[in-house]
Every structure is written in C-alpha cells, then in structure tokens.
User: Which sequence fits this backbone?
C-alpha cells in the first residue's frame, strides 16, 4: 500500500536561511511525487512534482525538491527562506500505475524575521 | 481563469442534521475530486468523478455521505446524518482529465469548513 510520511510537524527557520521540509514515501512501483502548500483558510496550491528524469526538480516561488530513490525521500528545499513562505506544506505520492493521491499529514513552516 | 469555486465557506450544524456542499470546477476540467481534511491531517480522497461518472468512491462512507455530478460540471457533496467526527474542511479539486490528474497538478478550491456540534 502507498504511504507518505512527513516526520516533522513543525519547522522553524530564520528569514534568509535555507529551509528543508522532509518527506519519505512507500509505493510498490515507481512513484509520482508532489508538494503542495496551504496558506491559512485557503485551498492547496501546487508547488512542484517529480514524475521521471532529473532527480532535482524546481518549482514555484524558488522551491526545489530532490528525489532520492535509495532513501525513498523527496525533501523540499529553498536556499533562502522568506517570511511569506510561512504556511502548511504537504507531500503527496501516487503510484505510477494508478491509485489515489496520498497526502502526508503536513508540516507547518514558520519563518521568523 | 476562474478557479475552483466552493460554497458555503463555513457551516455549523448539530449532529444528526444534514448539510450539502457545492463545487464548480475550472471550466473544461473533466475530473473532479472531493477531499476531506481533518484538522492536523492531510487531505483524504472521498470520491473522484470523470465527467458524470464515479471513478473511485472506495473511501466514501456511503451510509451517510453521497455525491453527484449529474451534468458533468458542478458537483454536490451531502452528509446525512452528520456525526461529530465529520467536522473537517471539505476540499473540491479538479484536473483537465484523468491523465492530467495523475501526472500533473490538481487545482483546489478554498474549501468548506464544517463544524458539527
């Protein structure tokens, strides 16, 4: 069965510092991996995806994520955090042969000035 | 381009009452999804439509939840009777088609927050 885990409920970083939000997954076949962001009282917004190809994928708002097959991870990164990046981040996985899009429980990112 | 529209944004009801949520997807999007997001958890798929047909409703509690998309455009999700554990945000999402939904992004509405007292 597919599953995805975000081991940190909350990540705190100072503005200007690099940030990492962790995600690990489990699927039977090849994974399709996604990151979404949710601002307060808003719906989820797509950030980036990994389907195939280069392990480092770039997305919206300067975010990037690295697919690591051996560690079954897909961590979200940004070189320099902004206060406006503060939000709830969700990792999601789908098995490439079909199946549901499974979301992690979310990680709250707080960026302080 | 207009996004996914949902209403109402907020609803408070007592247990055993009924409630209905409405969703209008992005124009031209054939695939529509209803997700339940309980506080502190990630969204969970309740039902997925392709046009007016159901693709997946395996996680829909069919004894109390129902959903329809009669003309293949907008959709309604109903809960009757509501239980305390139904308190959640109900998110509607859409994608151009099934393939786009599997490999690309889903477009989410702002959600309908339900509180059951």
Assistant:
């Amino acid at each position: 069965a597919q599953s995805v885990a975000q081991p940190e409920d909350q990540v705190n970083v100072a503005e200007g510092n690099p940030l990492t939000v962790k995600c690990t997954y489990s699927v039977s076949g090849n994974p399709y991996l996604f990151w979404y962001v949710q601002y307060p009282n808003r719906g989820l917004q797509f950030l980036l995806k990994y389907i195939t190809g280069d392990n480092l994928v770039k997305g919206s708002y300067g975010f990037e994520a690295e697919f690591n097959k051996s560690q079954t991870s897909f961590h979200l990164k940004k070189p320099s955090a902004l206060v406006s990046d503060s939000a709830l981040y969700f990792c999601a996985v789908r098995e490439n042969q079909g199946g549901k899009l499974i979301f992690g429980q979310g990680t709250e990112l707080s960026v302080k000035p | 381009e207009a996004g996914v529209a949902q209403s109402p944004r907020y609803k408070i009801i007592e247990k055993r009452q009924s409630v209905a949520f409405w969703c209008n997807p992005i124009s031209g999007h054939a695939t529509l999804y209803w997700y339940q997001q309980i506080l502190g958890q990630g969204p969970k798929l309740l039902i997925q439509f392709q046009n007016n047909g159901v693709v997946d409703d395996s996680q829909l509690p069919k004894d109390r939840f129902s959903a329809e998309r009669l003309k293949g455009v907008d959709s309604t999700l109903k809960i009757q009777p509501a239980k305390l554990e139904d308190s959640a945000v109900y998110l509607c999402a859409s994608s151009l088609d099934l393939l786009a939904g599997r490999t690309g992004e889903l477009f989410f509405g702002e959600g309908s927050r339900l509180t059951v007292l």
About this structure: Helices of chain B lie at 98-103. The CA atoms of residues 21 and 94 of chain B lie 15 Å apart. Chain B touches chain A through 22 residues (CB under 8 Å). The longest strand of chain B covers residues 88-95.
